[in-house]
Amino acid sequence: QVQLVESGGGLVQTGGSLRLSCAASERTFSPYAMGWFRQVSGKEREFVGRILWSGGQTIYVDSVKGRFTISRDNAKNTMYLQMNSLKPDDTAVYYCAGRSSIDTDYNTWGQGTQVTVSS
Questions:
Q1: What average pLDDT does the segment 6-17 reach?
Q2: Is the pLDDT at 28 greater than 90, yes or no?
């Protein structure tokens, strides 16, 4: 079964930038879509955005529009989340997830990476 591995989290000051990566373990991995989610301890997981793997179309939650950008490198089976103008409210564990088809929910998840934005 394919595994997703996130990397790139860390500590950054308000207004700074980070780029998260999500790499799939199998070269044959070809999902319908890949998404980024985030979760603060004690709160529900929040959808951040997603990219359609074939066409590259993206959507974002309103709170990150204009600041976050999702991209992918199909040859490397890797998705990215470029986060700019970070705010303390962006502090969370960020997860990537894969959705195998339009008829399924996100069914493959990474282990998460911590992003902390200091004020």
A1: 97
A2: no
